[in-house]
Amino acid sequence: MADDALPEELKGRFVDEFPIVVEGLVNRFGTQTVHDNLSLEVRQGEILGVVGGSGTGKSVLMRSIIGLQRPNDGDIRVFGKSITEAEPDEEIGVRSRWGVLFQGGALFSTLTVGENVQVPLKQFYPEISKELLTDIARYKVMLSGLPEDAADKYPSELSGGMKKRAGLARALALDPELLFLDEPTAGLDPIGAARFDQLTRELKETLGLTVFLITHDLDTLYEICDRVAVLADKQVIAVGTIPELLETEHPWIQEYFNGPRGRAAQASQKRDKRKAATSSSRSMDNRPPKRA
Ligand SMILES: Nc1ncnc2c1ncn2[C@@H]1O[C@H](COP(=O)(O)OP(=O)(O)O)[C@@H](O)[C@H]1O
Ligand SMILES: [Mg+2]
């Protein structure tokens, strides 16, 4: 729905409720059509998982939303401001309200982690003093679960998981309301991936973020996503909770969530839930756990 068509009193509510609204998006590269009339609404305060086969246009969708990819057609609004009508460097007052962790991390290799975090700060707040920049960067590094001294290290000195956290620290530099994560757990071992998921969830809850999370990781979808959007056939073919998606007939959705890996992720989540339930009932009745 175009926001302009709404009555005045509803406009604010619509914007508050859906910080991202994509309508009728079309993206083409030469003769290849990646998106054809794609629409999507992201709700305030949710972690929206975005899934789809390789090359279905997840990253292109994210780049369109943040204005790095100019679509052939359609309308994209972030916090009610049109991204599609604005020039890439035009000041529309929303670019400082989001943070992005690109696929692969994309840290500047010649800068330390701290200096990487300072890049967006310097861009949007050139007046901040050097001391304050250093302090803010250190704080963001720690917020991302890295030791304080990681701020002085170069990306090449970090493990894969630490690099992701450094990228996250940079994405959080401007205290964003919206966080874009493009395959943040790809390439991490299962423990590192689970820790990163946990961190994402905690940050979302403590900072009140809305998170647009592209992922292939079924565990991530089950563990931390409030809803999942499925990209296939050049569109978002379904958005909902995983149980809602399981009710749809689409073959890709069925194969993805009900295939062997999907079932394993489902089973592991059920086990975790049971474990959590038994440990909390034990602590409530104060009796020592029975031995099997
Ligand atoms: N700048 C570009 N120029 C030409 N083709 C591109 C460009 N960016 C992406 N594509 C193509 O668009 C399709 C979707 O890409 P992408 O969004 O990166 O997929 P994924 O869903 O794996 O993130 C791919 O076929 C890719 O080759
Ligand atoms: Mg991608």
Automatic annotation (TrEMBL):
Keywords: ATP-binding, Nucleotide-binding, Transport
Pfam family, one: ABC_tran
Annotated GO MF terms: ATP binding; ATP hydrolysis activity
Keyword Iron: no
Keyword RNA-binding in annotation: no
Residues annotated as domain ABC transporter: 20-258
Region (Disordered): 259-292
Name this polypeptide is given: ATP-binding cassette domain-containing protein
Organism: Pontixanthobacter gangjinensis
Lineage: Bacteria, Pseudomonadati, Pseudomonadota, Alphaproteobacteria, Sphingomonadales
